[in-house]
Structure formats: C-alpha cells, structure tokens
Design goal:
Layout: H1 12-22, E1 31-33, H2 34-41, H3 46-58, H4 67-83, H5 93-96, E2 99-101, H6 102-122, H7 135-153, H8 161-176, H9 179-184, H10 186-196
Antiparallel strand pairs: 1-2
Helix pairs in contact: 1-6, 3-4, 3-8, 4-7, 7-8, 7-10, 8-10
C-alpha cells in the first residue's frame, strides 16, 4: 500500500509501530520530511496530526534548539484551523518540506513505545460527543492556548513539558474519540498557564 493511501492510526502504539516499520533499520533515508511523516501515519484528520505534533513535542527530538518552538507553531497552526471550523488540516509547503534525522525519530519512537501500550489500555471511546464539533473546536482552542504557552516557556529547560503533554492528550483524545482524555488535557494546560503567569 502506498504511504499516502494508508488509513489513519487509531492509537498511540499503532502510530509508533508504523513509524518504526516505515523508517526502520532497512530505510536508506538519513532524514525524513514532515510530508513523508504525515503520509506514513495517514494524517488527513486533525486528531492524528495534533497527536503526532504532541508526541514530537515531548520526544528527545526537542533537545535540539528551536524544535520546541517549531512544534508549538505547528500545533498553533493546525489547532487554530480546527478551532475556526476547517474540515481538513493544512500545512504550508515550507513546513511540509522540513526534515529531521530518521535515527532520532526512531530512537524517540522506541523510547516511547513501552508506555504507549499502557496508555492505549486506558484509552477507549468514551463521551465521544466531546471529540466532535462543537466541543472538538473548544478543545482546539485549549490546544492553541497550550501551544502559545510553549513559546515563553521554551526559554526554560523542560518547562514546555506540561503544555506539550496537553497537546498530545488532545490529539490522542480526538483520535480515539475519548472525551475523558480530552477533559484530562485541561490540567497540563492550566499548569502551563500558571508557569507563564
């Protein structure tokens, strides 16, 4: 199956497994583009895209200077589109052509894989109406707030962890249609806002 025609992932483990399968040790590419990554996970909906951005934001990749702000900008752009009612997500060509290390991507995916299985056991369709408009748009606004707090907190080591985790939770809740996870995302957003203030 062509990467661009793959169905979207439905849970955290599935997303990480797909990344390892497609960009594993047999892959020749030393770098991977954002476009290739989105094609791989089948991210044609807001949930998987926000989830991927959130995982990126809490992964070791963000040890590279500037990547926290880059992921925050991506979350701001995608969540903002959902907040105003767009049906499908869009990224500018320059963002889609950006690349990062394949080995660093794989290392991050493998580090997160053990706890991803535990998370998936807890996530299931609950209060699914919260993952649909108009509530999904409200959680997108919450995601925008989380992304905005990452910009000033990015000047402090590890400080963006709470809002970045909130972004990942919102993406996971939208993807799995789990309203409980979506509600839980408000706590790390509040922590991020408190740190900024």
């Amino acid at each position: 199956m062509d990467a661009s025609s793959r169905p979207p992932v439905e849970d955290l483990s599935g997303l990480l497994d797909r990344l390892c399968d497609l960009f594993g040790d047999g892959a020749e590419e030393r770098s991977v583009s954002v476009q290739a990554l989105l094609n791989a996970i089948g991210a044609r909906a807001f949930g998987p895209m926000i989830l991927a951005i959130g995982l990126f934001a809490i992964s070791p990749i963000t040890y590279i200077p500037g990547t926290t702000w880059a992921s925050s900008l991506a979350a701001l752009l995608i969540a903002g589109q959902l907040a105003i009612g767009w049906k499908t997500p869009w990224l500018p060509k320059g963002a889609l052509e950006a690349t990062f290390s394949t080995q660093l991507l794989l290392k991050s995916a493998r580090l997160m894989r053990p706890w991803a299985t535990r998370v998936d056991r807890l996530v299931k369709p609950r209060l699914a109406f919260l993952a649909a408009p108009p509530f999904a748009n409200l959680f997108a606004v919450l995601c925008v707030l989380a992304a905005l707090t990452c910009f000033p907190l990015g000047l402090i080591p590890f400080a963006p962890t709470a809002p970045s985790f909130a972004i990942a939770l919102i993406g996971l809740g939208l993807t799995a249609k789990d309203g409980v996870v979506l509600l839980a995302s408000s706590a790390p957003v509040a922590i991020g806002l408190w740190l900024v203030l």
